[in-house]
Write a structure and sequence with these properties.
The protein has 159 residues and is an all-alpha fold. It has helices spanning 4-14, 83-86, 88-94, 143-157; strands spanning 75-76, 79-80. 23% of the residues lie in helices and 3% in strands.
């Protein structure tokens, strides 16, 4: 008990003033500017693309983006609108692609009879898209492009 004040002094010495500005400029992207703590009006929402054409995936494990509108689709403890089309039993009727086997697996890789709770809230991973200018620069290359570039480089070094 006698060492308690000592402990408190020690802990207090660990708390130091932050050596970075606490109200830094907002990062580029969605925010129209200002600083982190400033509240500015939100930019207007764009329209979700609704072309019903599946999009290319950038890598095999990518959750495919949603190619249709999902406004007002309810997903909560009372119901899951997405599963009314995408579940195993409904996909034949609706011709929506069935959720894949991974959606039935728990974290230990055991396949369950019903959709795994960790895959229940679809929009955690699947998002609609809007036809807008990218917010930040991005030099991502798909795996195909990487392989192609690699082959090209190897070809050049053999000449
Ligand atoms: C009325 C039926 C219906 C509902 C409800 C529905 N979908 Fe779909 N979904 C489809 C159909 C049909 C397709 C195939 C492409 C198309 O026609 O848009 C599709 C395609 C998709 C794809 C693309 C799959 C791929 O392989 O590229 C994703 C992801 C998806 N839906 C997610 C969702 C999510 C998440 C919800 C709920 C927020 C949802 N869908 C609700 C019918 C539905
Ligand atoms: C934790 C992330 C996650 C959640 C939550 C999730 N998915 Fe997926 N989904 C994925 C990934 C990753 C893939 C692609 C690889 C795979 O099939 O696992 C995928 C694939 C799909 C596909 C394409 C299947 C195929 O065989 O082409 C559909 C359709 C889909 N998901 C619908 C849904 C619906 C509907 C829900 C909600 C009930 C949902 N997903 C919840 C990550 C998720």
């Amino acid at each position: 008990m006698r060492s308690l004040p000592l402990l408190l002094v020690f802990l207090a010495s660990l708390v130091q003033a932050a050596d970075y500005p606490l109200d830094a400029p907002a990062p580029d992207g969605r925010r129209p500017g200002g600083t982190i703590s400033q509240e500015l009006p939100a930019p207007p929402l764009g329209n979700d693309e609704n072309k019903d054409i599946k999009r290319e995936r950038n890598y095999p494990e990518q959750p495919p983006t949603i190619p249709h509108a999902i406004r007002d689709y309810q997903v909560d403890k009372n119901g899951n609108k997405c599963l009314s089309c995408h579940s195993r039993s409904n996909s034949a009727k609706t011709q929506a692609p069935m959720i894949s086997i991974t959606h039935y697996m728990d974290r230990d890789g055991q396949t369950l009879a019903a959709v795994s709770p960790r895959r229940y809230f679809c929009t955690q991973c699947h998002v609609p898209q809007q036809d807008v200018k990218p917010l930040v620069e991005n030099d991502f290359r798909t795996i195909d492009k990487l392989l192609q570039d690699e082959v090209q480089r190897a070809g050049q070094s053999h000449q």
